[in-house]
Amino acid sequence: KRYLFIVSNKQLDRMRHIFYRLGKIESLFAFKNNSIVSLSNLKNISNVELIDAKSYSDLNLGVDINKLIKDINKKDRKIYRSIQYENFIKQNSLSINRYFQPDFEGYKLSKIFERINNNSRPKVGELLIKIRDLNEIPTTINTRNLNSQGEEELNRSFIKIEESCLLIAKNGDKLKPTIFKFNKTPVYISKSILVLKFKKEFEKKNTFEFIQYELNSQHIFNQLKYIKRGAYIPFYSAKDLMNLKAVIPDEIESQNR
After folding, report:
1. What is the 3-state secondary structure (H, E, C) of 43-99?
2. CA proximity to 194, closest of 253, 257, 147, 134
3. Nearest-angstrom CA–CA distance, 235 and 257
4. 145-163, pLDDT tens digit by residue?
5. What is the pTM of this model?
6. Is the predicted pLDDT of residue 55 greater than 70, yes or no?
7. In terms of Cα–Cα distance, which of 103, 112, 106, 138 is closest to 246?
């Protein structure tokens, strides 16, 4: 059996787990406001067909169905992808943009940075960094800028930091890349922040500051629209953020060889 579901694009991604339980997704058609999901109870589905049909739909004229079918039959790469089912499930997303990403230039952040990701519970009075402490304008923060732990946060898990690092917001429209300068006093970072330190080969002078500005560039914003999740407030997985590509000038790249 096959089932067709018409879903608002704003609700589509949050319904993915329901679809996964109901059957296997055979195809996904994404239009401007709604998407059509085709489910099957067949077990031998090896590929998922993804069609980005947003450019074929018009609020007044409807869908240019003849042209859409023609381009699907041609398997036009601008609108059509066929992805192995296992890889599709690993992406854990029904956002059509994710599967039509261009090949951006630059180094993946995972090549430049290592994640700091430990679990620690601060005591009352110890210093915290939350997303509100980060800044949309590239900046540096230190312990003088921070608030201390309150009793209401005693049961929450944070990331303990005892070194300088780069902080990136995982929620919101902007990454707010902020450098934290360590000064003897440990701090605790919210789990809604990605905490990064340079790999040894990229620890040269000025690289920290350059990357901070690069993460506020149009090049990065262009990539974010392909990986964002959330219908209203965007958020990003740590894995997706680590796959962002930053452009590094030749002089900095040569310093780090």
Report:
1. CCCCEEEEEECHHHEECCCEECHHHHHHHHHCCCCCCEEEEEHHHHHHHCCCCHHHH
2. 134
3. 34
4. 666 655 555 567 899 999 9
5. 0.82
6. yes
7. 106
